[in-house]
Amino acid sequence: MSKVVHIIPIGVNVERLLDSIKGSGYPIQKVYIVLGKDKELSGEKEIYAKADEIEKTLKVLIEVERVYVDKLNVYSSALEILKVIKKELSEGNEVLINATDAPRTTVISCYIAAQLSESRLYIALPKYEKGKEVGIDRIVEIPIPPLKKISNDKVDIIKLIRDNGGEVESINKLIDLLEGRTGDQKKYMAQRARMSYHLKGLEEDGLIQMKREGKNVKIMLTDLGKAYALMAE
Q1: Do residue 78 and residue 175 come from a single domain?
Q2: Is the pLDDT of residue 182 over 80?
Q3: Predicted confidence band at 49 (pLDDT cuts at 50, 70, 90)?
Q4: pLDDT higher than threshold 80 for residue 233
Q5: What is the CATH number of the domain that holds 201?
Q6: Residue 51's domain spans which residues?
Q7: What is the 3-state secondary structure (H, E, C) of the chain?
């Protein structure tokens, strides 16, 4: 039986976060609590204490797991969230992301993850009376614009780089791995020109980084490229 799974980054406003879950109107059978890997970050110890409190409350009714991310790296965090989403989607579950209490950088990670996975993202807007927060006003689902479509050829390239450990030492090696290099010089030059064209587009989109090393150009996936490759399967 499929589940409705919520991914919830934790901040310090436990009451608002719990209210957002209760008032969302969405079914909920499982929760992933998102925390920072580095407990020494400012405020993180307090957040861990809040997470313990939230987990204790939720575990009475639903399944709860934890996910640890690098809060200082937006794309790395998005990738960790996407791994969870990918797993749940593969099991036929629906995924929603609740960014109500997420730190700013994690909100961006959540948005990227929602866009790449076509998941739903929602937040609770606080209600104020006489300048003080008195609960939540309403739940807002954030519209996610469609991600730029890249060609199947480019998707094949980033997946191949990922499967090769995230980097390939040269354009020639990439051609060898992808389609096999022809011995015909004229056809080889066409292969190289086509590959260079695709790589330029991928670099402009921030999915790869190219670095010259001697006579060769090393091609490396960025964190965004890794996230895109994960969801392109």
Answers
A1: no
A2: no
A3: very high
A4: no
A5: 1.10.10.10
A6: 4-142
A7: CCCEEEEEECCCCHHHHHHHHHHCCCCCCEEEEEEECCCCCCCHHHHHHHHHHHHHHHCCCCEEEEEEECCCCHHHHHHHHHHHHHHHHHCCCEEEEECCCCCHHHHHHHHHHHHHHCCEEEEEEEEEECCEEEEEEEEEEECCCCCCCCCHHHHHHHHHHHHCCCEECCHHHHHHHHCCCCCCHHHHHHHHHHHHHHHHHHHHCCCEEEEEECCEEEEEECHHHHHHHHHCC
